[in-house]
Specification:
Elements lengths: L3 H18 L4 H25 L1 E8 L10 E4 L5 E3 L5 E5 L8 E5 L6 E4 L7 E5 L14 E9 L5 E7 L15 E7 L4 E13 L4 E11 L2 E5 L5 E5 L4 E6 L5 E3 L4 E8 L8 E6 L6 E4 L7 E3 L2 E2 L1 E10 L2
Parallel strand pairs: 1-7
Antiparallel strand pairs: 1-4, 2-3, 2-5, 5-6, 8-22, 9-18, 10-17, 10-19, 11-15, 11-16, 11-18, 11-22, 12-13, 12-14, 12-17, 18-21, 19-20
Helix pairs in contact: 1-2
Length: 313
């Protein structure tokens, strides 16, 4: 996209050509045409190069790629998720020279780059930042098994598509998220995530579960510093994901959002989750990585299991 100053310069050159043409100065006019063409091509190349940013994410001092890293423009809903080989290509005409690009992945120190200094096909090396797990202490307390969310499977005729058929030919759908909101009534430790699949045409689809804080009814910040990646091969029915090793603790009175991010980048096909028309939860969706959130009434057939703790009398 040309800037205002570039358009003004091009118009000025055309005006000069117009003036020369009517003075029958054909030789000079041809020279002006060449100048105009070269200038406009140069501007176009600049515009394209400034709005496309590619790279590969690696572990520090290694050739081992980091898959599914989040590449985000700070303070904007613009970003992508790197593929299984750590490669990404971010293209968006809203990106400006004053912007900063940040690469994050759970378990690694984030890295930031100024857009004006960016070089395409950049190799990005990230330093490991091992997650420290703090064991939950339950001394002098008793535990009670709990389930939070929709546990009855929802309505058999209502379901949420991860993709629609018209989107199967699109690229860069990796990073799409669907989810719902939970109100935490008792402090608890989460041991499992359970999803009621309506239809799965994949042999196996890879996904990431993300826990967010909620502000104004929408997801805001990631609150669980764990990279929860799993694959679903079940064709229909309840799918149970064991997350006990991640030591997830939720606090009484907290409102959280849980989303499922698709990490599948090929063979897009049908994947539906059952839903239920309840207004207290809310269905969440964003159709591309780090895009704008959309919210509608209803609830997704998904629940959390674990245990709450309470003191002995």
């Amino acid at each position: 996209m040309l800037s205002v100053s570039q358009i003004f310069t091009a118009l000025l050159l055309f005006y000069q050509y117009y003036e020369l043409l009517f003075k029958n100065q054909h030789y000079c006019a041809m020279k002006k045409i060449k100048i105009i063409v070269v200038t406009l091509l140069g501007f176009s190349n600049i515009a394209i190069s400034q709005n496309s940013y590619s790279g590969t994410v690696f572990e520090e001092n290694s050739t081992t790629p980091i898959p599914y890293a989040i590449v985000k423009v700070q303070n904007k809903n613009i970003g992508v998720v790197s593929n299984e080989s750590g490669k990404f290509n971010l293209s968006d005409n809203r990106i400006e020279n004053s912007d900063t690009l940040t690469i994050t992945c759970l378990g690694y120190e984030p890295k930031s780059f100024s857009i004006k200094d960016w070089r395409n096909d950049l190799a990005i090396y990230m330093m490991a930042n091992p997650i420290q797990l703090n064991e939950a202490t339950i001394s002098a307390k008793r535990s009670k098994e709990i389930k939070i969310g929709i546990t009855n499977g929802g309505t058999k005729t209502l379901f949420i598509p991860l993709f629609t058929k018209k989107e199967y030919s699109n690229n860069n759908l990796i990073g799409r998220e669907i989810g719902t909101i939970f109100n935490i009534e008792k402090s608890c430790s989460i041991k499992g995530i359970h999803i009621f699949v309506a239809s799965n045409k994949y042999d196996s689809i890879k996904m990431r579960a993300i826990f967010y804080s909620v502000e104004n009814g929408l997801p805001k910040d990631i609150i669980v510093n764990r990279d929860i990646i799993f694959s679903v091969s079940e064709k229909k029915g309840w799918v149970n994901i064991d997350v006990s090793k991640h030591n997830i603790r939720l606090i009484e009175g907290q409102q959280i959002a849980l989303t499922l991010m698709t990490l599948d980048e090929t063979n897009k096909d049908q994947f539906f989750i059952y839903a239920k028309m309840v207004s207290k939860n809310g269905l969440l969706r964003r159709d591309k990585a780090l895009g704008e959130w959309k919210k509608s009434k209803g609830g997704m057939s998904i629940y959390l299991s674990g245990f709450s703790t309470y003191k002995n009398n």
